[in-house]
Amino acid sequence: MADDSKTTITATFETREAADLAVEHLVQQHGISRVDISIRSATDRNTAGAAPSGGDASHDDGFRRDAPLEGEIEVLADIASSQVAAIRRSLEDAGALRVSSR
User: Fold this and answer.
1) pLDDT reported for residue 42
2) 3-class SS of residue 101
3) Which CATH number fits domain 6-101: 2.60.40, 3.30.70, 1.10.3470, 1.10.490?
């Protein structure tokens, strides 16, 4: 009998760019549907991450001053329990600071 139980995996990233890359890994490499993935601030503050990256970086002095850098970004995905180990490795490869599942 196949194990079809679900688990929510949560990964924390320093930048929105790294979180977006992780989502692409989940979708393209693991076949996770985008409706089963969410991205949110790890705190109660609106944030683009804890460090400038991607569109937050400026060509002049290294970062934009209007990008809210108020904390880390979390990626959450509802996955099959049998995928936890492989997806954990993929999220860590994408730059996750921490990964947990419940």
Assistant:
1) 84
2) strand
3) 3.30.70
Mode of pairing for the β-strands spanning 73-80 and 6-13: antiparallel
Instruction: Take residue 35 and report the two structure tokens written for it.
Output: 């409706």
Q: What is the crossing angle of helices 16-30 and 84-93, to 10°? A: 140
pLDDT score, position 21: 94
Residue in the structure block whose two tokens are 């969410």: 38
Length of the chain equals: 102
Domain ranges for the chain = 6-101
Cβ-count burial 31-40 (b if 16+ within 10 Å, e if not): ebeeeebeee
Q: What are the DSSP calls for 74-85, one per residue?
A: EEEEEEEGGGHH
Question: What's the maximum distance between 2 C-alpha atoms anywhere in the chain?
Answer: 59
Q: What phi and psi values does residue 83 have, to the nearest 5 degrees?
A: -95, -5
| pLDDT tens track for 31-68 | 999 999 999 888 877 666 656 555 555 555 555 555 55
